[in-house]
Each structure stands twice: as C-alpha cells, then as structure tokens.
Known about the structure:
Keywords: Exonuclease, Hydrolase, Nuclease. The protein is an alpha/beta fold. It has 2 domains: 9-83, no CATH class; 93-362, Metallo-dependent phosphatases (Purple Acid Phosphatase, chain A, domain 2, 4-Layer Sandwich). The chain has helices spanning 45-52, 68-71, 74-83, 108-111, 125-138, 157-172, 183-187, 199-209, 285-291, and strands at residues 9-10, 26-27, 93-98, 143-146, 155-156, 177-179, 196-197, 213-214, 220-221, 228-232, 265-269, 273-274, 283-284, 298-301, 317-319, 325-328, 345-351, 356-362. It is globular.
Amino acid sequence: MTEFSAIAVADPRESDRRYVPAGAKLPVAPESREVLPVKVSSEEVDWAISLLAEFPAEPAADRPGDGVDLLLDPERVHRARENVGRGMTGSETTVLFVSDTHIGYENREKTGRGSTVSWVQDISSEETIGRVTRLAIERSVDAIIHTGDILDHEVDKETLEFASGILSGLSSRDIPVYCIIGSHDHDSANPQHPDSVDGISWLKTQVTKGHLTELSTSPTSVASGPLDAYGISAGNVGIDDVGKFHSREWDPSDIAFGAASSGPNVLCLHDGLTPYRRYDADVDLDRLLAQSHVSFDCVLIGDEHRPKKRDFENGYTFEADDGTPVFYTGPAMRISEPYRNHGAFVTELTVSVDTVETRRHEL
C-alpha cells in the first residue's frame, strides 16, 4: 500500500458507510476538499473522475495536476470536468480585485522612508484590510485577487500579526486569496527601521500556511472553479526569488505561459504598462499579449496609484490593441495625491467565458 502524507483523510459519505469497515477514513481531494466516493452511480462518474484527477500519481508528485497524464486519460478528465461544471462556458466566478494595499504605509512618518500624503494621519492599514475582508464576506465572493504591493517597504510586527489573522479568517471561510507581489513587497525584505520586520519572510509564511497563493505563468484555478489566473510579479521576481535576483526589467519574449483550460483566463501584472503609460512604461503589454499562446479574457494591473489621465470615472478601464480589457482598481488606501478628494475602492469582477462585469465598492 502506498501512503500519501500530503493527502488529508476524512469520514466517508453517509451513503458509503455500508461499503467500508467501521472507523475507516477516505482520501479528501486536495483542491475541492471533497471526500472520495466508494460507490459511484452512473450519474456520478464524471464527478468521481474529476476528483481522482486532483490526486498525485506517486508520493513524490505533490503538485496539482501531476500524475493526471499517467493514471487518467487527459481528454476523459477534461470532459468530466466540463460535465460537472468545471470549465463550462456558462459558469461564473466572482472575485474581489484589490491592489496596492501598502500595509504599513502609515509607518513612513516614523521611519522617514518614503513620501507621504498630507492626510497620512487618517490612514490605517488595519482598518483598510478589515473593510476589504468584510466586503468579501458580505458579497460572498469566490476569491480575492491582489495585484501587488501588498506591503509597504517598512512594516511592523503588530500590523503583520493583524494581517495574519485576517488571512486566517478568510481561509476559514473558504475565501482564497491569490496574489502577485510588487516593488514595495520586494523592498520589505530589507527594512531599515529597528521596529520593522522582514515582510517577504511573512509573505512566505502565509503561502506555506495556505492562506495566500502566489500566481505565476502557469495557470492557477481560482477557487477550484472555471477561472484560471496567471500572474507576473514586479520585475518578474516572485516571493521565493527576492534577494536572488535584483532585476526590475523583463521583456515579453522572456515569458512563456502554461497551457490554459477551456474556461476564462485572467492575467495579473504589477509593472508600468502600455497602453496605460506611453513613454515611461516598463513593459509593452501589447507585445506580451501578441506573443502569448493563452488568450486572456482580461488583464488586472497594479502599481499606478491613480486612474489614467486622472479620470476617476473612466480612467480605470481601457483596452489593449487586440481588444483585451485591462482593469485597474486603484490603491486600496488614499496614498497618492489624486485621492485627496476621492475615495479609494476595490472592484468586484464577475468573470465568465463570454463576459467580464465590474462593480466598484468604496472603502
């Protein structure tokens, strides 16, 4: 018998108890968290296959998807997932799109690192992420997607402990949080003030606990649903690579996206991009999309701290050359001058294979 240490077990379904000995425990599918069935009706075959496809093929294969091509026919798995609603064109996923929370921003007054807005005394990282959490729960979103600068460059232990509680609470309510990181997240690895702590170490801990999922150029299923999310962190330097690579420049030709599923796809970025910017852009978004083998339903960006052309009505939404919609939601706190007389907000996205709908929520 082969044991899988990374796979949880649980009591069997009530309908299966007659087929297993008393006290028996059955595997729990690692993504959907459903107990593997013992007796399967003809109507449940597709569901059972989709659960089996979540398991690794061998003890060393602990990454989602490993083993699918060894134990199960990929085409059969694809059909099964479509039949049970994973990847169906009519399925929708609702996410709360958040960016540039800059947790710890108010510490700039004490540390002297970085400019501040004149109303910095009115800013509270804890209040902001608390409001985001309450909104996610009230709106019953499937997930939260954060497009970087989760942390400011100087963040204290107490604030991070509060943020840890927030992420733990979201996890307990089955609201996963997906992210890329920004330049201030990078800089938080090397705080200069004695009251600040290593922010990257904290981010790594949240990922290890399963309270935060970092996006990459490979697809990540959002809340085990039809939506796949991709992401490129600032400078193409992810959480594990901070300190190893210092480049803040990358070219679209450097990027190869993993194959997408049949459902909708979203790409998350945190660098200065065309067409939002013209002459000072870090990355040509149109080139990136043109050379991609994945067709994205929308792009979510971070970093900008203001609407395009300071147009608070229409400056958060624009299109790439190929028609792909690009969205920004602004900083979650009023941390830039354009927000002197404007409130910060987050954006609720409802994504299907045919449409992307948006709704703003002021914080």
